[in-house]
Amino acid sequence: MKVTIKAAAERRIRGRYPFGHRGDILNAESGIGAGDVVDVYAESGPFLGRGYFNEGGATPLRMLTSKRENIDEAFYRRRIREALSRREGRIVGTNAMRVLHAEADGTPGIVADLFGEVLSVQFRNAGVERHRSQILKALQAETGATAAFERSDTGERSREGLEQQTGLLWGDVPERVTFYEDDLELYFQPLAAQKTGFYLDQRDNRRLMRGLVKEGEGFLDVYSYTGGFSLHAARAGARALAIDQDGVALQTLEGAARANRVSVGLRMGDALDVLKALESERQTFGAAVLDPPTLAKRRDDIPKAKRIFTEGATRALRMLKPGGVLLISTCAHYIRVEDLLDAARVAASEAECNAEVRGTTYQPADHPHMLNVPESLYLKSILLQKE
Amino acid sequence: MKVTIKAAAERRIRGRYPFGHRGDILNAESGIGAGDVVDVYAESGPFLGRGYFNEGGATPLRMLTSKRENIDEAFYRRRIREALSRREGRIVGTNAMRVLHAEADGTPGIVADLFGEVLSVQFRNAGVERHRSQILKALQAETGATAAFERSDTGERSREGLEQQTGLLWGDVPERVTFYEDDLELYFQPLAAQKTGFYLDQRDNRRLMRGLVKEGEGFLDVYSYTGGFSLHAARAGARALAIDQDGVALQTLEGAARANRVSVGLRMGDALDVLKALESERQTFGAAVLDPPTLAKRRDDIPKAKRIFTEGATRALRMLKPGGVLLISTCAHYIRVEDLLDAARVAASEAECNAEVRGTTYQPADHPHMLNVPESLYLKSILLQKE
Fold it and tell me: Are residues B157 and B220 both part of a single domain?
């Protein structure tokens, strides 16, 4: 089966950009099924590689290789081995890591996180859905996971014409998947948790903040989810307070705090409302994290997202002691570091303080940012220190 | 003396932005001398603070404080103490650091670098020029420097109506100012060197690269200046090769290599020409740095700068071994991380390789990035690892 792309897209595809958008497709052979692997040709003639094609999908073409190679179990095994080797020696102090980060690892549409011996898998497009059994075999063989579950409940699937799908894949998946991060034992409920189970991508930031909190001081964890930041801060001796509107997540946090013999205060509710209440209670903190959900799935959402960052940061800065630190994170590809800085600048002005930008951080090594996929950079954080 | 600013600028100045541009000034009392300290008022009436005013300057108003405080030696001493406290415990392993980073430290127009007991000072505007004696007394008292020299030879001065000025300020300034960085002894000639003497701002990146080079492998230092990167790499056992067109800088590098008992290869010439020659010699390297001079002093310069980055990175990537790392730096405020990534992306495509973005780094703690001064962020680097 053959798909031809326009001259304008050829340069990008030759530069290893993995996506062919609707306007890039010149012509597709008839009879290609949704998610079929196709041979991709340039308008001028030459073979460019192979990829999944789904005419009706949000992104019709997803490149897999520039070679004439078979896309089979052996192919997926090679890609998984490459991904593991890319991470080698770089994820330490934990038995949980992202094994496949979709396009960034040359496996468009596959996200796989390993927690101890339990694998969490997400299939995002029609192509991987078609190859589900080869991919699962490859993952089982290369990761050695003894159990796996699926969390293909992402909005992306509907744009691909696929149903949401969750469930057990192989082995004996426990009701609680447990793993460790440094000296903390963490867990989640595989079929109830957000996303693929746990936010592994904030690992380095949790450690960063843990290194900055002071014993006995307040630590404010805004949009805490299951409280990874809070648990680390509490372990370092801070009085952590977690805010989230997800009651199930806060229950998990409560259980983890108990299991780790630390204490974390909980406030269930809308983050901005709770911040307002804390402010009126004249609470103060030595450190804080503002890590909201995506907020901007499209470029148009940026102004609204910035307003939320500004309000959250204003209130957090007001409650921070001088010298205290605030980490502001975004996991939205469309929100840039400059947007966070802008929002923080307005917030500092509102809070009548100044701050040093102590650092800017990005996603950890198991969520690689590959040069050929600009979209693979998504997690950006700024660390402010109030003057 | 009184200056009134327009309503539109009031919000920025209240938000601690230190610059009042030409269009921001509503009205200035007559008789204000170039660089005089003035009281700044909002169009609507209230007092906003004090700053230097130079009607003919590129930036007429430079805010110093939001209070009714005297701008005298005691004021400058307080600001220097604040700057030193901001850096406390954060600059280790060296006896050289930037003490004042102009606006970022609340001292617009003053840059001061301390090398052991010798201070390098730069005065950039008419305001600090008027207060030169108070500022020098304050610097001497707070830093304890036994000797100092001036390097006010910056283009910014001419836009302020000031002459270039260099020379000795106090004490016994040696012909060679020596200092250490980790286990390296470094030096420069105070009145012949570029800028204020030495690029302290690349300190953390030098250490980063030193940690990544492998013994016996090639290290390519493009736009080396006096070779800080090369000396660190050579100390770690790499075969360092430095490229610069400044013969005096390469002589200094040669002397420093001898003093530190390491060997660094030198190539004098235009960086891109030398890279081309090295490529035709089929040289290979395990690590490389591409750290050109500013390249973009205005927004209009960005496209040209990107072309230079792209060509340099293309050649460097071609000569890098798989797994090798390339650091690309810009010290231009106008060039963003995204511009470096764009240039690198095109370069990887030209060099027919892919790369992981292993990290993004910014200036070190003695060159603070303050939230209220967006312009204070200037040094940005991306670290690529060739696949």
Answer: no
Asked if the interface predicted TM-score (ipTM) of this complex is over 0.90, the answer is yes
Same domain for A50 and A80, yes or no, is: no
Where is pLDDT greater, at A157 or B38? B38
Q: How many domains does chain B divide into? A: 3
Handedness of CA A308, A313, A316, A318 (dihedral sign): negative
User: What's the sign of the alpha-carbon dihedral B252, B254, B255, B257?
Assistant: positive
Name every chain A residue with its beta carbon within 8 A of the beta carbon of B320. none
Residue B245 CA to its chain's centroid (Å) = 20
In a domain, A16, yes or no: yes
Query: Over the stretch B209-252, which tens digit does the pLDDT of each residue have?
Result: 999 999 999 999 999 999 999 999 999 999 999 999 999 899 99
Choosing from A209, A212, A238, A331, which is the catalytic residue? A331
Check whether A237 has a pLDDT greater than 80. yes
Q: Where are the beta strands (DSSP E) in chain A?
A: 2-5, 19-20, 25-28, 36-42, 47-53, 61-65, 96-101, 110-115, 118-123, 147-152, 165-170, 177-181, 184-188, 218-222, 239-244, 264-268, 285-290, 320-330, 355-362, 380-386
Residue A341 and residue A272 share a domain: yes
- Counting Cβ atoms within 10 Å, is residue A113 exposed (0-12), middle (13-18) or buried (19+)? buried
Q: And the tokens for B261?
A: 């008992």
Flag if A349 and B15 touch (Cβ within 8 Å).
Answer: yes
Closest partner residue to A354 among B365, B372, B384, by Cβ?
B372
Query: Could you list the residue range(s) of the whole structural domain that residue A61 is in?
Result: 2-65
Query: B187 in a domain, yes or no?
Result: no
> Which pair of structure tokens corresponds to residue A207?
């450690």
**Are A374 and B345 an interchain contact pair (Cβ–Cβ within 8 Å)?**
yes
- Domain check: are A80 and A38 in the same one? no
Catalytic residue among B112, B331, B343, B384: B331
B45: closest CA of chain A, how far (Å): 20
* CB of A202 closer than 8 Å to CB of A272: no
Residues of B in contact with A372 (CB under 8 A): 345, 348, 354-355
The reply to whether B236 and B372 lie within a common domain is yes
Going by the DSSP 8-state scheme, the letter that residue A294 receives in this structure is -
pTM over 0.90: yes
Nearest CB to A354 within list B16, B358, B362? B16
B228 and B257 share a domain? yes
CA dihedral over A213, A218, A223, A225, signed as positive or negative? positive
Compute chain A's Rg from CA coordinates: 22
| Residues A97, A143 within the same domain | yes
- Cβ atoms within 10 A of the Cβ of A94, count? 17
**Binary contact (B362, A360; C-beta < 8 A):** yes
pLDDT above 70 coverage of chain B, percent: 99
Contacts of A377 in chain B (CB under 8 A): 357
Pairwise CB contact (< 8 Å): A348 & B372: yes
Radius of gyration of chain B, Cα coordinates, nearest whole angstrom:
22
CATH of the domain at A121: 3.30.750.80
A348 with B14: Cβ contact below 8 A: no
Tokens of A244: 């989230």
Tell me, yes or no, whether A44 and A81 share the same domain.
no
Is B353 assigned a catalytic role? no
Structure-token pair, residue A59 = 């992104």
Nearest to A355 among B362, B365, B371 (CB): B371
